[in-house]
Design goal:
single chain, alpha/beta, Metallo-beta-lactamase, Chain A, eight-stranded mixed β-sheet, 6 helices, globular, disordered N terminus, binds zinc ion
C-alpha cells in the first residue's frame, strides 16, 4: 500500500519557508566562505512525511554539553548526538565502544571539538566523515587524523584549509571495531561522490549523513548513483533488520525509514526510465534545477548532468 504523507498546512509551509529563507540569508551574510554549506540546506522540504513509529526519538535527550555552536544530547547509553545551528541542525554523532569511540562528522563551525567530545567520553575518539561538505567537516582541524572516502578528500581539503592531521581513507565494507561494538562502512554515493553510511548492525540503526534522510535529497552526482546506493542500503536494511538511519541534519522527527529509501530508489529509477518527469526546482538547491516529489520524498538534481 502506498504511503500517504500527512500534508503540512499552507500556513505551516509558508512559515517554514520564511524560517529557511532567513537561515539562508544569515548563513550567506555571516559565513560566505562556507558557501558549500548551502548545498546541504533544504529549502521548504516536505517535513511531515515520516512514519511516526520510526520517529520515536527526538531532541529531548539529556543535554551533556552545550555552547554557542553545538548542543550534545544522549541518544542511548553509549551514543550521543551533537546539533549545530548554522545549517539546519547539522548533526554529529559520537558512538562509543568499550575501547574507543568514533565521532561521525564535525559540524560547521565548532572550535575545540576534540576537547568537547573528550568531555563526553573517556575513550579515544577518531573522527570519520559521511562526506566532505562544509557543514560536516568544520570542526575537524584539532583532530590528528580524519577518515573520509577518497572521492570526497578534495572537498574536505577545500573546506578545511591547512589541515595538519593525517587523512585516511574509509573503504567500502570496512568494519570499525570499537570494542564490543562495531560500525560498518558502506559507500553510498549520490549526494556526493564520496558519501558513506555507517551501520551499527547490532543496534539496528545507521548514520547516513546527507545520503539519506536529511529531508530533501540533493543529488550532486547522478540519479543512477542514488539508485545503486539505495539498492545496496535496501538490501542491507532487510538482511540486518535495520530500523532507521540517523541523518546528517536531524531535527528530532526526520529519521530515515526503510520505506523512504525504497521510495526514493523507485522514483529515481522512474526518471531514468523516462516514466517520471522532473519539474522545475522551486528553491536554491545548490544549482539543482529539477526535482521530483512524491510520497513525502523530494529529490533534486541537475537537468544537465544528473539524469544518467
Ligand atoms: Zn551535504
Amino acid at each position: 500500500m502506498a504511503h500517504t504523507p500527512q500534508k503540512a498546512s499552507v500556513c505551516g509551509t509558508l512559515w517554514r519557508k520564511r524560517v529557511y529563507l532567513r537561515i539562508v540569508k544569515n548563513v550567506l551574510m555571516r559565513y560566505s566562505k562556507f558557501a558549500a554549506i548551502l548545498l546541504c540546506l533544504i529549502i521548504a522540504g516536505p517535513m511531515s512525511a515520516q512514519e511516526s513509529d520510526v520517529n520515536s526519538r527526538d531532541l529531548r535527550g539529556k543535554v551533556v554539553y552545550e555552547d554557542d555552536e553545538v548542543v550534545f544530547r544522549q541518544l542511548d547509553e553509549h551514543t550521543w548526538i551533537g546539533n549545530g545551528h548554522r545549517c539546519y541542525n547539522e548533526s554529529l554523532y559520537l558512538v562509543e565502544g568499550n575501547d574507543r569511540a568514533v565521532l561521525i562528522d564535525a559540524g560547521t563551525n565548532i572550535s575545540k571539538l576534540d576537547k568537547i567530545v573528550a568531555g563526553i567520553t573517556s575513550k579515544p575518539v577518531t573522527l570519520m566523515l559521511t562526506h566532505g561538505h562544509g557543514d560536516h567537516v568544520g570542526g575537524a582541524k584539532p583532530f590528528t587524523e580524519v577518515w573520509v572516502a577518497p572521492a570526497d578528500e578534495p572537498m574536505f581539503k577545500g573546506n578545511v584549509r591547512r589541515y595538519k592531521g593525517e587523512i585516511k581513507h574509509l573503504t567500502d565494507g570496512q568494519v570499525i571495531d570499537l570494542g564490543g561494538r562495531q560500525l560498518e562502512v558502506m559507500y553510498t554515493p549520490g549526494h556526493t561522490s564520496g558519501s558513506v553510511t555507517f551501520f551499527d548492525k547490532a543496534n539496528h540503526y545507521g548514520f547516513s549523513g546527507d545520503a539519506f534522510g536529511s529531508t530533501n535529497l540533493l543529488v550532486f552526482t547522478y540519479l543512477s548513483n542514488v539508485v545503486a546506493s539505495a539498492t545496496k542500503v535496501e538490501k542491507y536494511i532487510k538482511d540486518n533488520d535495520i530500523k532507521f538511519l540517523f541523518p546528517g541534519h536531524y531535527s528530532g522527527d526526520n529519521l530515515e525509514s526503510p520505506k523512504r529509501v525504497s521510495d526514493l530508489k523507485e522514483m529515481c529509477q522512474e526518471v531514468l526510465d523516462g516514466k517520471r518527469q522532473g519539474i522545475k526546482s522551486d528553491g536554491n538547491n545548490g544549482g539543482n534545477d529539477m526535482m521530483i516529489e512524491d510520497r513525502g520524498v523530494r529529490v533534486t538534481f541537475s537537468s544537465q548532468n544528473g539524469i544518467k
